[in-house]
Every structure is written in structure tokens, then in C-alpha cells.
TrEMBL record:
Gene3D superfamilies: Dihydrodipicolinate Reductase, domain 2, NAD(P)-binding Rossmann-like Domain. HAMAP family: ArgC_type1. GO terms for molecular function: N-acetyl-gamma-glutamyl-phosphate reductase activity; NAD binding; NADP+ binding. This is N-acetyl-gamma-glutamyl-phosphate reductase. It is found in: Cytoplasm. Keywords: Amino-acid biosynthesis, Arginine biosynthesis, Cytoplasm, NADP, Oxidoreductase. Belongs to the NAGSA dehydrogenase family. Type 1 subfamily. The keyword Ligase does not apply. One of its GO terms (cellular component) is cytoplasm. Its main location: cytoplasm.
Amino acid sequence: MINVGIIGSTGYAGQELVRLLLGHKEVTIQWYGSQSYIDKKYYEVYGNMFQLVEDICQSDNIAELTNNVDVIFTATPQGYLAGLLTEDILSKVKIIDLSADYRIKDVKTYEEWYQIEHKSKSFIGEAVYGLPEINREKIKNARLIANPGCYPTCSTLSIYPLVKEGVIDANSIIIDAKSGTSGAGRGAKINNLYCEVNESIKAYGVTTHRHTPEIEEQLGYACGSNISIIFTPHLVPMNRGILITAYANMIKQMSEDDIKEIYDSYYKEEYFVRVLNSHVCPETRWVKGSNYVDVNYTIDKRTNRIIMMGAMDNLVKGAAGQAVQNMNIMFGFKESEGLLQVPMFP
Ligand SMILES: NC(=O)C1=CN([C@@H]2O[C@H](COP(=O)(O)OP(=O)(O)OC[C@H]3O[C@@H](n4cnc5c(N)ncnc54)[C@H](OP(=O)(O)O)[C@@H]3O)[C@@H](O)[C@H]2O)C=CC1
Ligand SMILES: CC(=O)N[C@@H](CCC(=O)OP(=O)(O)O)C(=O)O
């Protein structure tokens, strides 16, 4: 058994970590960290935890936490972990950070897109980008995991094999993405009120969304050069879910069967990536509450483009589920431990 602390346990990603870890055989949650609910019972913040969690929310005393747990999840705003991380902390405990603090290797790019100064640049090089399907070996021995963003997880897993195999021109990629509102967190913001979101759909962060450089970096590794893509997210009136539809020019002529072989070769051993049957389009409703990413593609022969699609739950594979998957790999547990939830429908 290992002991776990969650800083930011009262946010949407944090509560999803609690939900998943309560069903994990190898884990005890020792620390329910919070900023606004200190000394309140956790179930008073999240009623679904009534009679399941008796613990109270605690302040983020990282020194005490470090001495009492084996791994800390930080499900906190951008810049929080970077502001307090030290070698002393990392020498005692493993950290899985759900924010973007250590995802982008080039600090200038990070500071430009996030508009904040990075407070602990020296750890950026060491952090491992926690996308198990691509970086599993590096994750095994990591002390610090940069858990990928929600849109980047869905986008990278949907597109990566075709960039890596040189089937598409990576610079021609256009990603149209949609997210449910839990992606924006639990904090009160006018833009996320019911009347502002319900029965409407809008693009946001057009040309400026901070996930653009993260996706470019990961797909850039696949093709071995710096790339520029277009990434446009949309906010849709649903609680959970991300759908991406990506377009790119084909530079290798291949049949749909050939493409299928490529996807299968990358993902047939990957429990959490489901390559759907021919021409079945991924849907958020078929992955909700689970750690699956459903992917598929179609060739548009008229334009010589390929359309790649992916769907997943932003709070599970897009955040907490992926974080637990990373923890399982780091501690040598079965990778799917605590993550076998069947998608919930309706
Ligand atoms: N929501 C999503 O789909 C995804 C989120 N993430 C990332 O996870 C992180 C958390 O996101 P999310 O759960 O949505 O956000 P929320 O706003 O729902 O939660 C934020 C959490 O951080 C705590 N917190 C806020 N400010 C501070 C602070 N200054 N010091 C310590 N704790 C603080 C809050 O405490 P309290 O509640 O007590 O105020 C809360 O527990 C972010 O970095 C986000 O980018 C990653 C992938 C997907
Ligand atoms: C709908 C919505 O607002 N989504 C958030 C992305 C989700 C998130 O929290 O960002 P990370 O995945 O980088 O941690 C956004 O666009 O900023």
C-alpha cells in the first residue's frame, strides 16, 4: 500500500482523483488538500462522498505532506507547483502535477503562452510528460510527472501515429476541439454560468489557446521537427467530454486499410485506446466516466486529406485517470488498477 496526498482535492480534477483512488486497491488517501474549505469534512464539499470519506480538508502544508506520503498529486492552478517545488521535496516524494507547469520544455514558449514567469525552471528538464502510450519507459523511473492537458491528450493520441509514420504533413494539421464545461474547473466565472453555456456553443482562445504549443511539441517529437498547427477549442453545453476532429494533408498515398494497420500497430496493446471499427465516429457519450480514448479516421479522397477523430472524458483520461495510470506505472502496480470503470450511459 502507498499513501497519497492530493493538493487541490476540492477542484473538479481533484475530486475525480478522489473518486478513482477510493476504488484503488493499493492506495490510501492521507491528505485532502484545499484552500477554501480547510477543516470542513470532504463530503460537505462533495455530497457524493457522504459516508465514503470522513476526512477533513487540510491546508497545503507541503513540508508535512512530503514526510507522510509516497506520492503527491497537485490538481492546482497553473504556477502553483512551480512556485514551491524544491530538490528537498522531490528527494522525498514523487509528484504528479495535473497543471501545465512542467509540460512544455522551452521555458520561453511556456512564459509566452501562459503569461506567467516560471518559478522553478531547473526542474523542467527532469519532468516526464506523462502520456503512458508514448512515454511509458520514462514514466517508470520519474520523480516528477507533467500530466498532459486534456485537449493535448485527445489530440496527440488521435494524430500521433500518422505523424510518426510520415503519412500526413504535420504543418497542415487543423484541430477542431470541443469540451464540456467541467474542463474550466469549479471556480465561479460568469462565462461558465448555466445561462451563458446552456443551448449555445462557441469557439474560444482562437489562435491563442495555451494547449497549442503543448500539442505542437508532442507532435513535433513524432516528426522530428518544429511544427505549427491550428488548434481551435469550443465550449459545449455538457458536463464532461472532449471531442476532437483533426484535418491534415496526406503526403503518403495509403488506403484506409493501410491506415488501420498503422493505428492497430500503435494501439492494439494499449488497453485505454480503442481504435473503432471502420467509419464509426467517436462520441463523448461512449467514453464518459472511463479512462478510454476512442479514435478513428476517414480519408477524404476528393481533397487528399485525412480526418482524424478522438473522444474521451476530460476529467478521466484527460486528467485524473491519466494521473492514476501514471502513478500505477511509477509504483509498479497493474497499469489499469483503479481504472476499469465501464463508460456510463446515458
Ligand atoms: N478540469 C479539467 O478537465 C482538467 C484540469 N486540469 C488541470 O488540473 C488543475 C485543476 O483544475 P480543476 O480541478 O479544473 O480546477 P478547479 O478550479 O476546479 O480546482 C482548483 C483546485 O485548486 C485549489 N486551489 C486554488 N488556488 C489555490 C492556491 N493558490 N493554492 C492551493 N490550492 C489552490 C482549489 O482549492 P479550493 O477548492 O479549496 O478553493 C481547488 O481544489 C489545473 O491545473 C487544470 O489545468 C487538467 C486536465 C483537465
Ligand atoms: C473548457 C475549458 O475551459 N477547458 C480548459 C482546458 C482544461 C484544463 O484545465 O487545462 P489543462 O488540461 O491544461 O490542465 C481551457 O480551455 O483552458
